[in-house]
């Protein structure tokens, strides 16, 4: 396996498009952010909200929402869009925290969450990709909060469908795996992933656990065309996904890929209408949309549109 640090994108000072007014979000809930961060650190927990420098962190932490990131805070992949720390956990003696599943459940219980979102870094050095740890975490959350709905946002597990099934068998209500970008840009944006493999994960999830909602997300502004985005939406829908999320890519640091273009709110609306026209139950599309943003409301709306069994 290639060292992820070798695939990190090195960005020089280049001319970047000016941030438009519709992408300026005030940070007004500092106290809520500091309190939740402190409680998370006490349990040695991570959130993708922090590690990926999400622009919605103030809003979400203030409303008592967070996306737990398990399997540690070091990812074995070097995706060009992501600011999560990269490296080889095994070389850094970074084992799995056996208390993490229970700590996630306890934190979710303390926050009185009615909807829990769990994601993770990639752990390609592990034989099972971390899927046993994944399943244990989902199980612990459901045991602590039986009435709470659980959404998982998983890696591709290198196409190991046994690992995908292990997570699904733990009983999440929503299975999310992000496509991230169009086929043409995969080598640049997700160099250690495969477009068809990710579609296969979505398709397998739909067939293996038909009672669960299947979801996928993508970013725009990386140089894709509108036609390419529409083809990606068709592919996601053909794989069986019920929900698609579409948001603006924002460069988290100078080491990441630059923004090629800021997509207008009108274009996001057009993509939402297109997605609904091809059969999605829900398309959440907008400049600040992220795959876990307002996930409880997205799931609620999508569930309400499904036919009653």
Description:
- The protein has 309 residues and is of the alpha/beta class.
- It has a single domain, classed as Aldolase class I (TIM Barrel), CATH 3.20.20.70.
- 36% of the residues lie in helices and 12% in strands.
- The protein is built from eleven helices and eight strands.
- The protein has an eight-stranded mixed sheet, with helices on both faces.
- Helix 5 runs parallel beside helix 6 and helix 6 runs parallel beside helix 8 (195-208).
- The longest helix is centred in the middle third of the chain and has 14 residues, at 131-144.
- The termini are far apart.
- The model is unreliable at 1-14 (pLDDT under 50).
Based on the model shown, name its key terms:
single chain; 309 residues; alpha/beta; TIM Barrel; 11 helices; disordered N terminus
């Amino acid at each position: 396996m290639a060292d992820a640090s070798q695939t990190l994108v090195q960005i020089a000072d280049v001319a970047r498009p000016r941030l438009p007014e519709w992408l300026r979000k005030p940070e007004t809930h500092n106290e809520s952010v500091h309190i939740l961060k402190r409680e998370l650190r006490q349990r040695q927990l991570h959130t993708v909200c922090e590690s990926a420098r999400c622009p919605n962190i103030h809003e979400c932490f203030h409303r008592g929402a967070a996306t737990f990131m398990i399997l540690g805070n070091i990812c074995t992949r070097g995706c060009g869009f992501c600011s999560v720390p990269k490296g080889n956990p095994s070389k850094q003696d970074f084992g799995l925290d056996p208390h993490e599943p229970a700590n996630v459940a306890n934190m979710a219980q303390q926050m009185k969450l009615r909807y829990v979102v769990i994601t993770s870094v990639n752990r390609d050095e592990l034989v099972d990709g971390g899927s046993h740890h994944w399943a244990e975490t989902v199980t612990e959350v459901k045991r602590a909060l039986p009435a709470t709905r659980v959404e998982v946002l998983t890696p591709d597990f290198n196409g190991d469908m046994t690992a995908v099934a292990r997570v699904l068998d733990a009983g999440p209500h929503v299975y999310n795996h992000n496509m991230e970008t169009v086929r043409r840009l995969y080598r640049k944006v997700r160099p250690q992933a495969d477009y068809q493999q990710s579609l296969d994960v979505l398709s397998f999830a739909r067939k293996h656990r038909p009672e669960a909602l299947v979801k996928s997300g993508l970013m725009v502004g990386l140089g894709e065309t509108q036609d390419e985005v529409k083809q990606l939406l068709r592919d996601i829908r053909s794989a069986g996904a019920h929900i698609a999320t579409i948001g603006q890519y924002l460069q988290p640091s100078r080491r990441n890929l630059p923004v090629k273009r800021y997509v207008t709110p009108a274009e996001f609306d057009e993509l939402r209408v297109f997605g609904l026209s091809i059969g999605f139950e829900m398309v959440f599309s907008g400049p600040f949309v992220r795959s876990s943003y307002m996930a409880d409301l997205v799931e609620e709306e999508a569930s309400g549109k499904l036919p009653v069994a």
